[in-house]
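Working notes for the structural subgroup meeting. M.R. asked for a predicted model of this chain before we commit to crystallization trials. I am recording the input and output together here so anyone reviewing the notebook later can reproduce the run.

Input as submitted:
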Amino acid sequence: MSLLELIAAADERGLAASAVACLDRCLPQPADGADPDPLRPLWAGCADGSVWPDRLAEVRAALDAAADTEGAAPQIRKLLGEAPVDRAAPELREWTDACSLLALEVHLGQDATPSAGAEAVRCCREGDPEGAGPLLAGELRRQVRILEMLAETTEASGAGAGLRQVLDVSTEGQRVLRAAVSRRARGRV
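Returned structure, recorded in token form:
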């Protein structure tokens, strides 16, 4: 299935976790003394929809207070401001799609391999990653893997384990992107 098909088929828990994972991977390296994991409270809201509104408000406040202007931080704050408070499927699906798109665009922007820009992202989302650079292709694989893992677990059995696995995959992706950003900043692309 393509990324767009997986997003279309995902349940509310899968949509929420996939979106949070996308944003989590795009967070810039925190400044000294800053919270290294500002989206952590929102992960609990992925497992339990009843705490989503409070966790979302907590994360919004924390990121607004940090007022980071580096990298994708302003876009992440904007998307968190647009996140549906009640996790209703139609709005949540649109939000997840926007988070997915942001993550792919951020990875495209850091890719050392030139590609066709927005066209490469569109093709990746539709299931054709040919011609995508390694960072963009890697992010596509992570998003697909996360949505597939979440589809395999249900609220009743393994929901927590599924989210832990998603967090692990997302953390790995965050390290990859931060390393690419660091290499670029040092001029060793």
